[in-house]
Specification:
This is Phosducin b. The protein has helices at about 1-15, 20-35, 40-85, 100-110, 130-140, 195-205, 215-225, and strands spanning about 95-100, 115-120, 145-150, 170-175, 175-180. By secondary structure, the protein is α/β, with parallel strands linked by helices.
């Protein structure tokens, strides 16, 4: 009998997860307690075959769940790698305040060639300028690869060109090229507008890139929860 128990224990040791092994060991002890007489060779073999079948099914389910989790992580990693390859330009924080015409020209001419630059020309007291500044503050967090800037029309040195009737103005550049020139841009928005409205307006001209993907670590934490 002792040899049979050793053989059975060695067989089960290689079945898989510890929980399944412990269940199998408890099963053996309970079986032995129920019968004082040692089980026959045929009964032991039959019980072992039935339990081995249960173990194999449980292992399959555990492996299936593990494979699905690994597959999700692999897909996210591939998407992140592809996104990183397509978005290899610099990243920015917040809206940059430009204090002169020279700073305005520098940000247009010297910024990375893949970077979209959005410049808001405003003047304090002009309707819509403050609201648009607030919207750009929000969009800057949503689009870290876009460089959002603002400059007072007087400080830009082009106050005559950007008179009050043309404000607020949004200019969009990439690689030094002017892609969008929206004078009095709030006329294209509702009386009360929000960051999502400005985002939709710029997207209607294809001027904003794809949004950043969620961090892989955050998604993995959500999966665990």
């Amino acid at each position: 009998m002792s040899n049979n128990l050793i053989d059975m224990e060695e067989t089960v040791t290689h079945t898989g997860p510890k929980g399944v092994i412990n269940d199998w060991r408890r099963f053996k002890l309970e079986s032995m307690d129920q019968q004082n007489l040692p089980p026959s060779r045929d009964d032991t073999r039959a019980n072992l075959n039935r339990k081995t079948l249960c173990i194999n099914v449980q292992e399959y389910e555990l492996l299936k769940e593990e494979d699905e989790g690994c597959l999700k992580k692999y897909r996210r990693r591939c998407m992140q790698e592809m996104h990183d390859k397509l978005s290899f330009g610099p990243k920015f924080e917040g809206v940059h305040d430009l204090d002169s015409g020279e700073a305005f020209l520098e940000v247009i001419e010297k910024e990375h060639h893949t970077t979209v630059v959005v410049v808001h020309i405003y003047k304090i007291g002009i309707k819509g300028c403050e609201e648009l500044n607030n919207c750009l503050d929000c969009l800057a967090t949503e689009y870290p690869t876009v460089k959002f800037c603002r400059i007072d029309a007087v400080a830009s040195g082009a106050a005559e060109r950007f008179s009050d009737e043309f404000l607020p103005t949004l200019l969009v550049y990439k690689a030094g090229e002017l892609l969008g020139n929206f004078l009095a841009c709030t006329q294209h928005l509702n009386e009360e507008f929000f960051a999502t409205d400005v985002e939709a307006f710029l997207n209607s001209y294809g001027l904003l890139p794809e949004k950043e993907l969620p961090g892989m670590d955050d998604e993995e934490e959500n999966d665990i929860e």
